Amino acid sequence: MLLVSIATFIIILVLAVFLFIRFNPEFGGKQSEADKLQYAKLDHYQDGGFVNLIPTYTMEVNAKNIYGFFKEQFTNKEQRAPEKKLMPEKLDSLEIVNNLKTRITWFGHSTILLELDGSKILIDPMLGDVPAPHPMLGKARFVKELPIAIEKLPYLDAVVISHDHYDHLDYGSIQKLKDKVGRFFVPLGVDAHLEAWGVDPSKIESLNWWDETELKGIKMAFAPSRHFSGRGIGDSNATLWGSWIFKGNEDKIYFSGDGGYGPHFKEIGEKYGPFDFAMVECGQYDERWSQIHMMPEESVQAGQDVGARAIMPIHWGTFVLAFHDWRDPVERATSKAEELGIPIITPKIGEAFTMDELNNKFPRWWEQPNVVN
Q: Secretion signal: which residues (predicted)?
């Protein structure tokens, strides 16, 4: 009887997992065979998936690392999240109207509202609570609430995506945003996710590395990064990943997306730099996956490589996706930036700033953060 009960439980569990994977819209869409045939003509598409410019592993797999990984899950003593929920600066929708002066608002992690030449561009809008296909599969964001509710955001000229991981492309956020966005700019293959989620295909433009496009006079380009992609079982590297360049009338902005350090940063700098400002991935790092996520010191070096006048660390301060203290990324990046003499911008979550403030000294807010009492 016990064996029958165990067998029944296993069958039900397997069935539940199958149904979850099969019917959960979070996993996104599938690329068409016609698209795959086009991708196969590219140098960076091999054996049914995209590849990096240089050899890259997502995680160094060996017995020692696997043991260490599981051990840290239960014994890690780092303060991986704030003791209390953080309270962001609040953003008024009336402030996001026709700002001709370049303005940037960090929503936490890698979500950025870029206001450039009067256009409103939302980058990597992960505005949900957990970066996972189900709330039970991840940890909630550090911040009690968003700087502004999605429903209160004004019409957006564009949404820009760097790659399809859950902490950058969120199904729930797209559902709430899709009818108030003029254009979607995405890497090759990510258009399939958006179309599966009900976004009008005529509003989507998918780009390959080094492709260039335009949004209301703003020149944009999609450039390489050193990373990987995938949202579910069997779709590893089915979509492309990368970084973005925005060139307005006066300011040139770089957004790194995710990725490890490599020679592509200097190539981007030579082709499109120098930049007035760069937002560079800094956080969720570990020596075991150092080829797909930079160490903070490398993040600052990457900013210097692209020729940025000032840099801002992103991809930190919002989610637990690694084993380091939640404040380590900004501490280490700040130290390295001071060593190299590069201005580093460290706004509070929800704090808007303009290019006129790049030489200002931002307070070390993470040392005494505003928390929910």
A: none
